[in-house]
Write a structure and sequence with these properties.
By secondary structure, this protein is an alpha/beta fold. The protein has two domains: 67 residues, no CATH class; 301 residues, Metal-dependent hydrolases (TIM Barrel, Alpha-Beta Barrel), CATH 3.20.20. Helices cover 35% and strands 24% of the residues. The strands form three sheets. Strands 1, 2, 3, 4, 5, 14 and 15 form a seven-stranded mixed β-sheet that branches. Helix 2 runs parallel beside helix 8. The mean pLDDT is 95.
Length: 391
């Protein structure tokens, strides 16, 4: 038997918004009905709980670093990516208890703020128990990193051990970033994760320094390698942007999430379209502002017809893990409509993670979670807008 709820607007995502719509929900959270108000009257449905606000499906966070949650407030803002990486390395050490407690709090925060599924970056097994006991669906991306090609076999061996350690949770081995993965390591990753239908991710063009390094072997990344004690004498500049240098080394079969895209331009987009048919583009605007104090050219990405998703990055680079806050930042700074942002925050992320049969939209038979967004105005989010989880 279903219970029924209504709100000022229902946003099914897969179909047009319904003013004063009625949502039927079974006791286990399965959507049974999505009705216009007159349909509810015809069916004689009168016991309806009504809310002031918008009903939306559970949100999808396609890029997070749960294991960095203990670094909240420890990393200086606007330091640029190389400086940010150095600070992360310096603050990475903490007690197992501190790390676990921070992850538990971050997980609970995401859940209460309407997130139902998360694509989470991991370098170790520290987050396994938190994820096993979470109410959130997690797909763990085990990062492999190593710029020296001679270490590729050793690195992939360690990554496989971490991936296997996450069982029975879903986990995939992925490259960290173009500046931290050798061509030999890309090949090793592809042999394991480069299969049709698999989901992989990579940090992409988060800083101008990344493009400068690949084009001319210049910039602050040289100082970062020196700080890390890495010999990169083998590396030769490609004379091309970062994306155009590494994308051909990634499998064209897997669904590939390019994360950040802060310095991606039109030429990069056209190159990507021609070289990979299963690309998703993740925006983490609040982290971009935290690290580089700059946003991607969101209008450029939107106008190019790309499949865009949203992420929060980590508490090392963000003040909160809230997809709604990412949406508010994008609407305030770019004017993208709420409906468009909601697709990025729901069905697109679900499709990337391969869970669109359960999450991402209100459709009969699915259990996507139900959120209420309050303090909205004229089809727009406001600075005061808040999200609450109903189901």
């Amino acid at each position: 038997m279903s219970s029924y709820i209504s709100a000022s607007w229902i946003f099914p995502v897969s179909s047009a918004p319904i003013e004063n719509g009625v949502l039927g929900i079974a006791s286990d959270g399965t959507i049974t009905d999505i009705l216009r108000p007159e349909e509810a009257v015809i069916r004689g449905i009168s016991a309806i709980t009504t809310y002031d606000g918008w009903l939306v499906p559970g949100l999808i966070n396609t890029h997070c670093h749960l294991e960095l949650s203990h670094m909240a407030g420890k990393i200086a803002e606007h330091s640029g990516l190389p400086g940010f990486v150095q600070q992360v390395m310096q603050h990475r050490h903490a007690s197992a208890q501190e790390i676990e407690q921070a992850m538990l709090q971050a997980d609970e925060y995401m859940y209460t703020n309407g997130i139902v599924a998360t694509g989470d970056i991991s370098n170790q097994l520290a987050s396994r128990e938190v994820k096993l006991n979470s109410k959130i669906y997690y797909h763990t991306f085990v990062e492999a990193m190593g710029f020296n090609p001679e270490r590729a076999s050793e690195i992939i061996e360690n990554a496989v051990a971490v991936k296997n350690g996450f069982a029975p949770l879903k986990a995939t081995i992925v490259p960290h970033a173009p500046y931290s993965v050798s061509s030999a390591l890309f090949a090793e990753i592809n042999s394991i994760s480069g299969k049709e239908g698999e989901s992989v991710s990579i940090h992409n063009q988060e800083t101008m320094e990344e493009n400068e390094f690949f084009m001319r072997r210049e910039g602050h990344f040289l100082k970062l390698y020196e700080f890390l004690g890495l010999d990169i004498s083998f590396f030769e500049a490609q004379g091309k942007s970062s994306l155009q240098s590494y994308l051909p080394m990634m499998s064209g079969l897997s669904k590939t999430l390019l994360v950040h895209n802060t310095f991606t331009n039109h030429e990069d987009i056209e190159f990507a379209k021609k070289n990979h048919q299963y690309l998703y583009w993740c925006l983490c605007p609040n982290a971009n502002l935290y690290i580089e104090n700059r946003l991607p050219d969101v209008q450029l990405l939107k106008d190019a017809g790309l499949t865009i998703t949203l992420g929060t990055d980590s508490l090392a680079s963000n003040h909160q893990l809230s997809i709604l806050e990412e949406m508010k930042t994008l609407q305030l700074r770019t004017g993208i409509s709420f409906e468009e942002l909601l697709r990025w925050a729901t069905i697109n992320g679900a499709a990337f993670l391969g869970i669109e049969d359960r999450f991402g939209s209100f459709e009969p038979g699915r259990k996507p979670g139900v959120n209420l967004i309050e303090a909205v105005n004229n089809q727009k989010l406001t600075a005061e807008s808040q999200i609450g989880r109903l189901i």
